[in-house]
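Recap slide: LacI family DNA-binding transcriptional regulator, sequence and predicted structure.
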Amino acid sequence: MDTITIKDIARALNLSTSTVSRALRDSYEINPETKRLVIEYAERLDYRPNPIALSLKENRSRVIGVIVPQIANNFFSQVINGIEAIAYNRGYNVIIFQSHESFERELLTVQQAVTRKADGLLISLSSSTSDVSHLRTLQEKKLPIVLFDRVSAELDLPCVTADNFAGAFAATEHLIQTGRRRIAHVTIPPYISITQERLAGYRAALEQYGIPYVESLVQYAGFGQYEVEPIIDDLLSQKPDAFFAASDRLALGCLAALKKRNVAIPETVSLIGFTNTPVADLLAPPMSTVEQPALEIGQTAAEQLIDLIEDKPKKPKPGTVRIPTRLHVRTSTQ
């Protein structure tokens, strides 16, 4: 079959090529009924825009740079799926970079994305990023940027995250309501935004129920499940009756370390994680956890970035969109 062009659609619908072009871009200048006619006809003929022609005409690459700490992480994999779904539907390609939790690698990947003429960036900051001047410089140069998951209060940019505070509050409250009072919190490095938000939710739940906050019951680890082992003995010496881990990777580390020490779950201690790993209900015991809406975070972040790139009249303003989490109660806390 011959390739269908905007001119073919315009001729068939008796419209101008500029009207068809704007309708396909979801322009606010075109009335909804005309958009509907154009989009339905284009879909019926399996119209696909020519990316090279579009980039030349619009002076845009129609490429989005996505920078994540690690792809081999179920949460970030799902976020990327959400980003790619929206990008594809709106005529953009995605280039994915990994910072591997390194500030230096983040600097390099940001520069690579800029060199490749990405129209905008979606970034989740590395765990070692405290200086965000590289992003502030790009912001001053008017490059559209949206932060997701791990964000920075120092940047006046749109941000998309899970409601980490509410999720942590719900997890801690659930433990309290099942009779637990000495709740250990195993978390990731303290300077990351999600760490601070989840710790704040944990503390708020304790305060609401009149339970004293014990600083020594909060221990910081890295990101791998095997990094929990060294801190478990110290926590167990303080006789906790529950563990709330700030990620499911850490929760898996807690599970393995507690089993190794013959600590019964949930009879002796309860255990709850944060993310909702796909294997959570297959563990022994099945693990309670807070679900992060990873796919929705990716979709929302991508929509916001593309609206910025295309300078939509209702383009997102700086500020944080917090997407609700959901608590899954399983045997490990019952």
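The domain at 164-292+327-333 is CATH 3.40.50.2300 (Rossmann fold).
The chain has a mean pLDDT of 91.
(End of recap.)
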